[in-house]
Design brief:
This protein has a single domain (17-237), classed as Lipoprotein localisation LolA/LolB/LppX (outer membrane lipoprotein receptor (LolB), chain A, Clam), CATH 2.50.20.10. It contains three helices and 13 strands. It has helices at 3-33, 36-40, 114-119, and strands at residues 44-53, 59-68, 72-79, 82-88, 93-97, 102-108, 135-144, 147-155, 161-166, 173-182, 185-199, 202-212, 217-228. The protein has a 13-stranded antiparallel β-sheet.
């Protein structure tokens, strides 16, 4: 075989090898979380713990999250008798913001509740990513605090981009970058994930630290308890009463 044919063969095989590396890494990541069957068996998750927010003058708040498959989400952040709520009922999102002086529920725009919708995917976006309308690319290796991670970039149907850094030993996510556009403004955030523990046969992160990309982590969540497949009342996800401005 001549040199030109060898080069042509390599060019033809390159996309296939790239696709295989993506699928192989995702398969290892899914297995690391507990396997496809156990992930698909998750129907709801209840998180309970603490949120440390505010940088140098951080405040510790009580934090709960309720997620029910396929499209229900509610978070509650409480301090000194006040509770901020963000929720999504499968059709619309809403919030109560007492810390910002808004004690009445108000509806939020479709753009603003994107992250709430994404959080209802209990199995994560990498599982069956193509069926969900996502695209995934393998970007190679990158150092994250001493770990030579595998890097996967996921592009959602909306155009929003998330980059996942997989630990080279466990293949679990240790960092995630998210680039979103809301009202024409592009935002980038960086989230570190750790302290993975078993919940109903699935490994989930009990430590979540977030901030702007490349900056300090201004939000630190430590979950004391994560419960799987607990019954939930559908009413808690719905907008309380009428009104509200989209």
């Amino acid at each position: 075989m001549g040199l030109s044919r060898i080069l042509l063969s390599l060019l033809l095989l390159s996309p296939l090898a790239h696709a295989q590396s993506v699928d192989e890494l995702i398969a290892k990541n899914i297995q690391a979380h507990g396997g496809r069957e156990r992930l698909l068996a998750l129907r709801s998750l209840h998180y309970s713990g603490k949120l440390l927010s505010g940088g140098d003058e951080a405040r510790e708040l009580s934090y709960q999250v309720f997620v029910e498959s396929p499209n229900h989400y509610r978070s509650e952040v409480s301090l000194q008798g006040m509770t901020a709520i963000s929720a999504y009922d499968g059709q619309e999102g809403w919030r109560i913001s007492p810390f910002g002086g808004r004690k009445d529920p108000e509806k939020i725009s479709a753009e603003e509740c994107k992250s709430l919708q994404w959080a209802t995917d209990l199995q994560g976006p990498l599982l069956d990513y193509a069926a969900k309308g996502h695209r995934v690319e393998y970007l190679g290796r990158e150092d994250v605090e001493g770990s030579n991670t595998y890097v996967l970039r996921l592009t959602r149907a909306s155009g929003d981009v998330e980059t996942y850094y997989l630990d080279p030993d466990t293949f679990l996510e240790i960092r995630m970058l998210r680039k979103t556009t809301t009202r024409g403004v592009e935002r980038e955030s960086e989230t570190d994930l750790g302290n993975y523990s078993l919940v109903e046969g699935c490994y989930l992160p009990f430590s979540v630290e977030s901030g702007s990309r490349g900056g300090s982590k201004t939000s630190r969540v430590s979950w004391d308890l994560i419960e799987a497949n607990v019954p939930m009342e559908v009413q808690q996800f719905r907008f309380p009463g009428g009104g509200g401005v989209p």
